[in-house]
Design a protein that fits this description.
With 945 residues, this protein is of the alpha+beta class. It folds into three domains: 4-231, Alpha-Beta Complex (Spore Coat Polysaccharide Biosynthesis Protein SpsA, Chain A); 361-395 and 436-579 and 596-743, no CATH class; 760-880, no CATH class. It has 35 helices and 23 strands. Strands 1, 2, 3, 4, 5, 6, 7, 10, 11 and 12 form a ten-stranded mixed β-sheet that branches. A five-stranded mixed β-sheet has the order 20-19-21-23-22, sandwiched between helices. Strands 8-9 form a two-stranded antiparallel sheet. Helix 17 runs antiparallel to helix 27. The longest helix has 27 residues, at 437-463. This is Glycosyltransferase family 2 protein. The chain crosses the membrane at residues 251-272, 362-380, 441-460, 523-546, 558-577, 621-648, 655-675, 687-708, 720-741, 896-916. InterPro entries: Glycosyltransf_2, Nucleotide-diphossugar_trans.
């Protein structure tokens, strides 16, 4: 009997390809007996205006109907099969963008007529705009249920025409026996978007029928029929839909005893797979993992009906289809092919980049390292550093990391609140040497200059083509005054920023095309913001400018500030709640006094008065400060001229960007001198200007590099002059640091005296009242617990507080009475505060402070409650004879600590996973080398989703 074919064409709203598909149907060498066009787009769709004739039928399904619902609606429209034709009634399912070639149906019928066991036959789907390329040819699944296209995206050379029996075929162009369709219940309603045809084919196989491919039947395909001609919506959406379909089929196919275990594994697997997606630079799919896991676990209303339908039609065991599943070898071969295709598409760089070793980058880094070792030679055998804004850090990693996040801060009289974000940076540096965390700070001091050189060299190489220019830029930047002044005065955060800025610039420049670069930029953005909060406005402006200039990469760059936002939100809320939101920009670490430089001095690169030490150095030989200022101006002339003329070079865009960075940095430095935020004794001090000067110098050096790279004449002499005067400008800072004139000095790691430290071993909560005479004759007082305050315990919440708490007020009253002769009885306050020692530090120089120190020492000597211990390295020490344990409430970190740490772990963990490079990177060509000797492509290219 002649088989009867009913073609079902599903046409959604806006079906732009419908005419081509209908034309293909009209030219079939073996036309179908009936055609049903199912309009699912509503009254305004193109299908609703079709004029069909003959055996064709136009019917409308509810808008938004799935493919399964549309086919079911079509079968209702055509009615039951004619009597006696059930076995020879066939359904040919097409989407509006599945245009069959002339002999497609004839070839399909020729195959099924000679093989009665075949119930489903699929054509070779070809690309709509590239008819010679296979869009899809057969489907299968892995042992874990993931769907896999057997062939996709390959040029058709008949290399796969030997395939016949397969596990599944695509829905587009599928020819299925109507009786089998009805027996199996059609497509699963729980799979409206992906894998509906694969699931149906699998059930047909388990019911004892064959599913085959017909390579001679070709159908042009523009997209998946389940999508109804809609845009795929990107890789993230396709990944989410495929995962949802896989989880649905897993619950449907699982044995009854295994079903609870599969259900319980949905969320844990989502977590593990999200980590993998981040490593694979596919962050969009990570969110979809949780969405599909929860929707499948709590919204899988079709699972029960699908399991019942499968059990009713299933006649064979799952082992019957095992040979048709994808094997590990096939998957490995497929991944290798995809990788080869990706590598083949990676283009060589148009211009060969400078070699780090051959172009002088390594030698500049070595020179910077030598300068660092010479300048800080006194620190080589020291386990810690102190002075200026520095203190040793906690002696154990547990104590070090306990200072991070939110909790009890043992500083002053103690308080519960968020930590400074910089505490995390200190904790990371301390973790580098877990046996002695303070040694990590010493290692950073020695490595800061060479690391700055490496970062500057890499950033300059990105801006230039001449091989020697990055070496000059690295030399000038690595020994520039901002970093040396920061290291000399103990501004650790500013030094960390100086090292991180070139790497941040490099990552931001590449973030528009690389998830790894964007994630790296987000981490470096957070490090710079945490180390120098005063640069946050400049960082935000730079981030917005980067997005504006590279709008196509916006989706990769939007998340750059997120880690920094997560770090600062608790601190911003705490500062805003007490009306001091601007205190967020205070420098982290120990507050120190600094003499603010004038705008002219800042323009010359000096963050403090004294022209980077030149004034003091030349005063001994009779040269005045004004004369020295003129000489410094002349020294800065080469850098300034080269930066200024860069706007006239061909690479004007790069030059303008560099000069904008310099302007932002200089503006930040000038503004910093006008904000007195942190308290130091009886006075306040402003934000250190050296942080802004780091950006200022980075921009100037970058702009000068552009000039050296593009100006055709006199560039080698100009580069040599720039390098010489750039190093010479920092000579006084290097000398001052070498001879120990700076404020940073070696330390044994002990904050208080050995006597107090020994006592703190037995009584970790013992308090030491530290009295510090100030130059103006006032008295600063602090209460330190145990072995003393450490760098990781410092908090800008304490340094910027404008009102005294009741406990702090009592502390100041107690200190004032102890240093004077009065009838005040301090026993109650000493007992409540847990004070065991009183330490009187030396006054800074002669004057009122020295007089106060003498009077305070006499008052404490005459007080019978205190026993003199003697002079120590920290000052004069007295022991309180009636010291007892503190009677105040026990310390508590509060309920917010776990929440904040969890959020930080998620944010930074995700960024770190994304930052790990795992995808192919285009190779860099080497001039003068044949292709066979060129370097192999490594991993850097990523999907643009």
């Amino acid at each position: 009997m002649q088989p009867r074919v009913t073609a079902i064409l599903v046409a959604p709203g806006g079906a732009a390809s419908l005419d081509r598909t209908l034309d293909g149907l009209s030219r079939q060498t073996r036309p179908p007996e009936a055609l049903v066009v199912v309009d699912t787009g509503g009254p305004s769709s193109p299908a609703s205006r079709l004029a069909l004739s003959g055996a064709a039928t136009l019917t409308s399904a509810p808008a938004g109907s799935t493919l399964a619902a549309a086919v079911a609606h079509a079968l209702k429209a055509v009615g039951p099969a004619p009597a006696g034709s059930e076995g020879d009634e066939w359904l040919w399912i097409l989407g509006e963008d599945n245009a069959p070639e002339d002999a497609a149906l004839e070839e399909l019928l020729a195959t099924v007529e000679v093989a009665p066991s075949v119930a489903v036959a699929g054509p070779k789907l070809m690309r709509w705009d590239e008819p010679g390329v296979i869009a899809e040819f057969g489907e299968t699944m892995t042992r874990f249920g993931a769907s896999v296209a057997l062939v996709a995206g390959e040029l058709d050379q008949a290399q796969h025409d030997v395939q016949a029996d397969v596990l599944g075929v695509a829905a587009g162009g599928m020819l299925v026996r109507r009786s089998v369709w009805q027996a199996l219940g059609g497509f699963d309603p729980g799979l409206p978007h992906i894998d509906a045809s694969l699931d149906f084919s699998t059930r047909a196989r388990l019911a004892g029928h064959r599913v085959v491919l017909v390579p001679s039947a070709r159908v042009l395909s523009k997209g998946h029929p389940e999508d109804f001609g809609r845009s795929e919506g990107g890789h993230a959406r396709r990944s989410r839909l495929r995962r949802a379909a896989q989880l649905h089929r897993r619950l449907v196919y699982a044995p009854a005893l295994a079903l609870p275990f599969h259900w319980l594994s949905l969320v844990p697997l989502a977590i593990l797979r999200s980590v993998w997606h981040l490593l694979a630079k596919n962050p969009g799919a990570a969110v979809g993992e949780f969405r599909t896991a929860f929707s499948t676990a709590f919204g899988g209303s079709h699972v029960s009906a699908a399991r019942t339908n499968l059990a009713r039609s299933k006649k064979l065991r799952w082992s019957a289809i095992r040979p048709l599943r994808a094997t590990v070898a096939q998957l490995r071969e497929r991944r290798a092919g995809e990788r080869d295709a990706l590598l083949a598409g990676a283009e060589d760089a148009a211009v060969a980049r400078a070699s780090f070793v051959g172009a002088g980058g390594l030698w500049v880094a070595v020179l910077a390292a030598i300068v660092g070792v010479v300048a800080f030679f006194r620190l080589l055998d020291s386990p810690a550093v102190t002075g200026g804004g520095l203190l040793p850090v906690s002696t154990t990693l547990g104590s070090l990391w306990h200072s991070v996040g939110y909790g009890w801060h043992e500083i002053g009289t103690g308080f519960v609140g968020p930590s400074d974000p910089f505490a995390g940076v200190v904790a990371v540096l301390g973790t580098l040497t877990p046996w002695s965390p303070s040694t990590g700070i010493v290692l950073f001091y020695l490595a800061a200059l060479p690391l700055s050189a490496v970062g500057a060299w890499l950033a300059a190489r990105r801006l230039t083509e001449r091989h020697w220019v990055p070496a000059v830029a690295a030399l000038v930047y690595s020994v520039s005054p901002p970093v040396l002044a920061a290291l000399q005065t103990g501004h650790l955060g500013a030094a960390v920023t100086h090292v991180a800025v070139p790497f941040l610039v490099l990552a931001v420049v590449s973030s528009h095309r690389s998830w790894a670069a964007g994630a790296t930029a987000s981490i470096l953005f957070a490090v710079v913001a945490a180390s120098t909060p005063s640069l946050i406005p400049a960082l935000v402006i730079g981030w917005l400018a980067a997005i504006a200039t590279r709008p196509r990469g916006t989706h990769r760059m939007l998340g750059i500030p997120l880690p920094a936002v997560a770090l600062f939100v608790p601190l911003v809320i705490a500062q805003a709640s007490r009306g001091t939101w601007w205190a967020v920009f205070a420098d982290p670490g120990v507050p120190t006094r600094s003499a603010s430089a004038s705008p002219l001095q800042l323009a010359l690169g000096s963050p403090e008065t004294g022209l980077n030490g030149w004034t003091d150095l030349v005063a001994r030989i009779g040269i005045t400060g004004g004369t020295m200022a003129i000489l410094i101006v002349l020294a800065m002339v080469p850098l300034g001229i080269l930066a200024a003329v860069s706007v006239f070079a061909p690479s004007r865009g790069r030059a303008v960007a560099c000069l904008a960075v310099a302007l932002l940095g200089y503006g930040t430095a000038v503004a910093s001198t006008h904000f007195d935020i942190s308290g130091v004794g009886s006075t306040t001090t402003g934000v250190w200007a050296g942080s802004g000067l780091t950006l200022y110098f980075a921009g100037l050096v970058g702009a000068a590099s552009v000039s050296l790279d593009r100006i055709p004449r006199f560039t080698p002499p100009a580069g040599l002059l720039l390098g010489v005067v750039g190093v010479a400008a920092s000579v006084p800072l290097i000398i001052a640091t070498f001879v120990g004139a700076g404020t940073v000095v070696p330390s044994s790691g002990r904050i208080l005296s050995a006597y107090v430290t020994a006592e703190a071993v037995a009584k970790p909560d013992v308090g030491t009242l530290v009295l510090s005479p100030q130059p103006d004759g006032s008295l600063a007082v602090s209460l330190q617990r145990g072995q003393g305050e450490t760098l990781d315990q410092q908090s800008t919440l304490d340094a910027t507080q404008q009102r005294l708490s009741s406990t702090t007020r009592d502390l100041t009253v107690l200190a004032g009475n102890l240093v004077s002769r009065s009838g005040f009885d301090p026993k109650t306050d000493l007992r409540e505060l847990g004070v065991g020692f009183v330490l009187l530090q030396a006054a800074p120089g002669d004057g009122p402070g020295d007089d106060l120190e003498q009077r305070a020492g006499e008052a404490l000597d005459s007080n019978a409650l205190f026993l003199p211990v003697g002079d120590t390295t920290s000052g004069q020490l007295w022991r309180y004879s009636d010291a007892t344990e503190r009677t105040t409430a026990t310390r508590s970190d509060g309920p917010l600590r776990p929440l904040i740490l969890t959020i930080w772990a998620i944010v930074f963990g995700s960024a770190l996973l994304l930052a790990i490079p795992t995808t192919p990177r285009r190779r860099r060509s080497r001039p003068g080398k044949p292709e066979a000797e060129q370097p192999a492509t490594t991993f850097d290219e990523e999907r643009d989703d």
